[in-house]
Design goal:
By secondary structure, chain A is mainly alpha-helical. Chain A has helices at about 5-35, 50-75, and strands at about 45, 45-50. Classes of the chains: A mainly alpha, B alpha+beta.
């Protein structure tokens, strides 16, 4: 019988890979759509809007997700 | 002694004393335990703070505090996108493999990454190939780290009289040790760094490395946060700094010679680095020191930068600068515009960012995707990080460390981007030698705050980063040689005393080799770091991840994965060198060789595995099924929190 600890770890690893892919699409996608040279550059609190929405907001969400995932979702063996 | 020199010396001595004290303590604690597991894994007893900070400090090499700031300074806000995958680095780096790797290592008693592969595949060839690859790449990786560390020591102690006298003494008594093209101060900095890092690593082993990593982790984050407050204050706020960057156009880069106008040729003339001068209404800044030696009229060409943004020129002139003496006349040798961004205001606050050489800019779309993969996945595949995942005490530790490290990296990398964007405003015209920006900003910010001793703390941060990476890698090379080659293949019955002596000798040998390599500083440091770091990830991430998660994965698949992935990665670099004539890889579809290396590694692993017989049932049961009395691991090892 497969070890439940192995199955659980594999499931968690799959979710982590998915989270990485989502972050990649959102971060590079938003940054590229809003941040290319030639487009008007808005600023939010001194941070270029494309950095704010493309990098900092995803960064904050990713940190919150990592914290929730590690403290709440991951299981001990 | 100037206050700057005293501050630097004080910080260096204090820091050195703390590192040595920790090594001594670690040695005392570790001497009561079983040598191999203690010396290379700290008896698998890493606690939450230790795991998070040793992982963070090892990942943040000298490049993070020298190379990364210089890139932000040179290319602007686009570096936020370049480094963005650190948002998921802790989750990927620790969460993807951590639980399984730790579990398997405990069940099999593995101490090193090749140990895990040996146990999983019961193969002699696989761990041997991985050990050789690991030792070779890590040794090459160490050379640029030693070089960068020596440059940092030079910047830290260059103004200290005692250091200058020692360097002079070295040049007089042992001139053969100073190679052509290097300075005695560089060699002295290298020797000081080597003796310190080899000494505490050899003496204290893994426990000392982890304890000093904790200290270094705190030094790094404290240095960055203090710099952030000072930079924002002195730049007049982030809004102001970004508004100024929005107006900026990239400068022109070039060379200048200085000619003496008088006929007095007996005395030499020195034009200091970072001197401002004008030619008509054009404004320039030297990026190197120029000398007109006695008996000559002209200096050798030195690097300079021409500021072209009208607002920036007005600001520099408004602050005022000391003009060159009338007896010195600058003669411009060459001036060239940026390949991407010239006459393009706004380029420092948008993507892909300016580039002096690449018409596509610093970070085109394909590279943005590649770097998002590079940091998170390459970090996961570093054997140095994997070893740390084999050393924590329990899963609770891992879970808390992931959460802590996520916050820690946010506190390091986001502020670094802001600080060095402010640096463009506070210290313009260093674009020809941007690697100096970290120490320049440290002294500038400390001076501006009228707290000169603070410069010492700020410069200690990159020194700490260099040390925390070098110590870990030296220990890993040693574990590869002593455990994976000598004990497993040459003399399995070797006594503990022999292994201990071999370990000390190996660390010293690795230190001497890296020092000797760094005596002749290689060019393209950042490329060597990127190449070796990527090579390690490509060679190890696929095989280790599949070994942990795919029961059907077998020896042939693992060998194919290591060899295929690394060969594809290497081929793109070789092809780039052959066709482009530089250490620049070919990037099919604009993607970095690392991505193609991963694709090749996974492809070869799948084909190799499915085309060959499955692994023995016994091995599958041992690694993937519920443990039975026959397959159960030896009892848990003693865990005294690090």
């Amino acid at each position: 019988m497969m070890d439940p600890a192995f199955l659980r770890a594999r499931k968690e690893a799959a979710y982590i890979l998915l989270a990485w892919a989502v972050c990649l699409v959102i971060t590079v996608g938003i940054s590229w759509l809003l941040g290319q040279t030639g487009l008007p550059i808005a600023s939010i609190g001194g941070i270029p809007a494309w950095v704010f929405f493309g990098v900092l907001v995803p960064w904050a969400l990713a940190t919150a997700f990592s914290t929730w995932f590690s403290l709440r979702f991951m299981r001990d063996e | 002694m100037s206050s700057e020199a005293a501050a630097s010396l004080g910080a260096f001595l204090l820091y050195t004393a703390a590192v040595l004290a920790l090594a001594w303590l670690a040695h005392r604690v570790g001497s009561r335990k079983s040598f191999l597991s203690e010396y290379f894994l700290g008896s698998r007893s890493l606690g939450m703070v230790a795991l998070a900070l040793t992982f963070g400090a090892t990942s943040a090499s000298a490049g993070s505090f020298a190379g990364f700031p210089s890139l932000i300074y040179a290319h602007g806000w686009v570096l936020a996108l370049w480094i963005a995958s650190y948002m998921v680095f802790p989750l990927c780096g620790m969460g993807l493999l951590g639980k399984r790797l730790n579990h398997v290592a405990r069940r099999t008693g593995a101490i090193t990454v090749p140990d895990v592969l040996r146990a999983r595949f019961e193969s002699r060839a696989l761990p041997l190939i991985s050990t050789v690859l690991l030792a070779l790449l890590l040794t090459v990786y160490l050379i640029p780290q030693f070089t960068l560390a020596s440059l940092i020591v030079q910047q830290l102690l260059g103004n200290v009289n005692a250091f200058q006298r020692m360097a002079l003494g070295l040049a007089h008594t042992m001139p053969w040790i100073v190679p052509t093209g290097s300075s005695a101060e560089y060699v002295l900095g290298l020797v000081l760094f080597s003796v310190l890092v080899v000494g505490y690593t050899a003496f204290g082993g893994f426990r000392a490395v982890v304890w000093t990593d904790i200290l270094q982790g705190f030094v790094m984050v404290a240095g960055v946060l203090v710099m952030l407050v000072l930079a924002l204050w002195q730049a007049g706020g982030l809004r102001n700094a970004t508004a100024m960057m929005t107006d900026m156009e990239p400068p022109r880069l070039g060379e200048v010679t200085f000619v003496r106008a008088d006929s007095m040729q007996r005395e030499g003339i020195r034009v200091a680095v970072d001197s401002w001068f004008t030619v008509g209404d054009r404004l320039f800044r030297t990026n190197e020191t120029a000398f007109i030696v006695p008996g000559t009229r002209t200096s050798a060409p030195v690097k300079m930068v021409e500021i072209v943004t009208p607002q920036e020129k007005a600001r520099v002139k408004q602050h005022g600068f000391t003009p060159l003496p009338a007896a010195i006349i600058p003669e411009l040798q060459s001036v060239r515009s940026y390949a991407r961004g010239a006459d393009e205001p706004g380029v420092y606050v948008s993507a892909p960012g300016p580039s002096p050489t690449d018409p596509d800019g610093f970070l085109p779309f394909g590279l943005a995707v590649s770097f998002f993969a590079f940091w998170a996945l390459s970090g996961t595949g570093q054997p140095g990080n994997m070893v740390r995942l084999m050393a924590f005490s329990n899963t609770v530790t891992l879970r808390r460390a992931i959460a802590s490290l996520s916050i820690y990296f946010t506190l390091i990398y986001v502020p670094l981007v802001i600080i060095f964007c402010c640096a463009r405003v506070l210290s313009p015209g260093l674009d020809h030698t941007p690697d100096r920006i970290m120490p320049v900003m440290a002294f500038l910010l400390a001076d501006g705050a009228h707290v000169p001793w603070l410069a010492g703390l700020l410069i200690a941060a990159p020194f700490a980063a260099a040390m925390s990476t070098v110590d870990s890698f030296m220990l890993m090379i040693t574990s590869s040689v002593v455990r994976d080659i000598y004990q497993q293949n040459v003399r399995p019955s070797a006594r503990e005393r022999t292994l201990k002596r071999m370990s000390y000798a190996c660390i010293i040998t690795v230190g001497v080799l890296a020092t000797a390599g760094a005596l002749y500083p290689p060019q393209f440091l950042q490329y060597i770091i990127v190449f070796t770091g990527g090579g390690l990830a490509v060679a190890f991430l696929g095989p280790v991840a599949l070994a942990l998660y795919w029961p059907r994965f077998n020896t042939i698949g693992a060998l194919a994965s290591i060899i295929g992935g690394f060969a594809a990665y290497l081929a793109l670099y070789v092809l780039g060198f052959a066709t482009l004539g530089a250490i620049t890889p070919v990037r099919p579809l604009g993607l970095d060789p690392l991505i193609w290396g991963f694709v090749a590694s996974l492809g070869c692993a799948t084909i190799g595995t499915l085309a060959s017989p499955p692994p023995p049932d016994r091995l599958v049961r041992q690694f993937f099924h519920v443990p039975t009395a026959r397959t159960a691991a030896p009892g848990p090892e003693s865990a005294e929190g690090l």
